């Protein structure tokens, strides 16, 4: 599937800086939670994707989990998705420290 995506992230300087700060904390061993909230189409997924790209460039393992509309009882689906991705990644690279 091809996705139209502008080459440059436009604006979002404050949010981008918050993401970079979270990455810097991560590099110091400090975890955290960054919540992107806003109305439909405002750019949450785009910002998350660009931050994930930056994180991956810095050698951070990026795991993705997706919620589905009307997911009902599957409250842990996003976490389960990310965890299984981590396990697959580890299984594909045996012997490497995770
Ligand atoms: N700051 C930005 N610079 C350039 N393009 C952007 C920016 N923010 C969003 N876009 C583009 O606008 C479109 C909608 O953005 P996006 O899908 O990230 O919105 P969303 O908030 O995740 O929407 P939804 O709530 O429906 O999931 C995408 O094509 C995305 O690439
Ligand atoms: Mg989105």
From TrEMBL:
Judging by the UniProt lineage, the source's domain of life is Bacteria
User: InterPro entries, per this entry?
Assistant: AAA_16, P-loop_NTPase
A Pfam family of the record is AAA_16
The species is Pseudonocardia xinjiangensis
GO MF annotation: an example: ATP binding
**Sorted UniProt keywords:** ATP-binding, Nucleotide-binding
Is the Nucleotide-binding keyword given for this protein? Answer: yes
In what residue span(s) does the Orc1-like AAA ATPase domain sit? 8-93
Instruction: Respond yes or no to whether keyword ATP-binding is given for this record.
Output: yes
According to UniProt, the name of this protein is: ATP-binding protein
């Amino acid at each position: 599937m091809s996705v139209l995506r502008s080459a440059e992230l436009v604006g979002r300087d404050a949010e981008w800086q918050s993401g970079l700060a979270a990455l810097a904390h991560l590099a110091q061993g400090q975890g955290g939670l960054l919540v992107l909230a806003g109305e439909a189409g405002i750019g949450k997924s785009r910002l998350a994707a660009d931050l994930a790209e930056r994180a991956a460039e810095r050698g951070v393992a990026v795991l993705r989990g997706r919620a589905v509309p009307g997911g009902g009882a599957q409250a842990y689906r996003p976490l389960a998705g990310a965890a299984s991705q981590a396990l697959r990644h580890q299984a594909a690279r045996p012997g490497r420290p995770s």
